[in-house]
Design a protein that fits this description.
268 residues; single chain; mainly beta
Length: 268
């Protein structure tokens, strides 16, 4: 992540999530290392907002840590945002957003009030980005993308179909870009309309679809993806058709899911 004249780059955790985390602050022009931020647990995400760096650290529980980008020192008290893994992290619309993988929930932390809100999205949410006045979430296991109103935390429109195992998500050039790990494709979504762009990928079922759960694929025939989320009670909604392109190979291993989680609380 570039911030001013610095580039922040970190190391990935190991498969067991036991490796201590570290981020380097590198001079953008010279490549010289200006400093380090170290944690005794793995780092799963980094975002910038409200004049601070935000790190999500560790798992079971996942902790949100605020750091001064100048001094590289922690600010305030770390906040537990999930009892599971929180992997995706973003800042926008005045809040920190994180995804709780096992519980299938999107987390909103208000740095002003300290309130934590959560809402159910799709199965195994990973990537999250804020763009076009919406919060966008890549639901890895059910092959969809959720878009939510940042104020009400309710989904806007139906879930948007993507490729197999949509995992990471970014915003650029008026579009939302989703990387689909299992089929090596990228899904492009218009951030204003939610319409998908590109060439449709051939039909291949999602390998992480639960038995008896929502049916998702990358073809126009998909019809039962996901639910319309609210703070208290999800309901079913229609799904858009995704168009994907840029094929690679080598699918990653499966990540299991077990949905549960709290609805709202205040950080201590």
């Amino acid at each position: 992540m570039r911030l001013g004249d610095s580039l922040w780059a970190g190391s990935s955790s190991d498969w067991l999530d036991t490796k201590p985390g570290e981020y380097l602050q590198v001079d953008w022009r010279t490549g010289a290392i200006k400093g380090r931020v170290r944690f005794d647990r793995p780092i799963f995400g980094l975002a910038y907002g409200a004049g601070s760096l935000w790190f999500v650290v560790g798992r079971m529980p996942a902790t949100l840590v605020r750091v001064d980008p100048v001094t590289r020192r922690p600010l305030g008290t770390p906040v537990v945002i999930s009892e599971d893994r929180a992997i995706g992290l973003a800042f926008g619309e005045g809040a920190v957003w994180a995804t709780s993988l096992e519980s299938g929930r999107l987390i909103r932390f208000d740095p002003t009030t300290g309130l934590i809100d959560t809402v159910r999205v799709g199965e195994n949410p990973v990537g999250v980005v804020v763009a076009g006045g919406r919060v966008w979430v890549a639901n890895r296991a059910d092959g969809t993308v959720s878009r939510l109103d940042p104020t009400t935390m309710r989904e806007v429109g139906g879930r948007i179909g993507a490729g197999r195992l949509p995992t990471w998500i970014a915003a650029a050039a008026g579009s939302i870009w989703v990387s689909n790990q299992a089929d090596g494709t990228v899904t492009r979504i218009d951030s204003e309309t939610g319409a998908t762009l590109g060439v449709a990928d051939p039909d291949r079922p999602n390998p992480e679809r639960r038995a008896g759960g929502p049916t998702c694929s990358a073809l126009p025939t998909m019809d039962r993806c996901g639910s319309r989320a609210s703070r208290s009670k999800p309901s079913h909604a229609s799904t858009r058709v995704a168009r994907t392109f840029v094929r690679c190979r080598d699918p990653p291993p499966r990540i299991p899911a077990s949905p549960h989680g709290k609805a709202r609380r205040r950080a201590p």
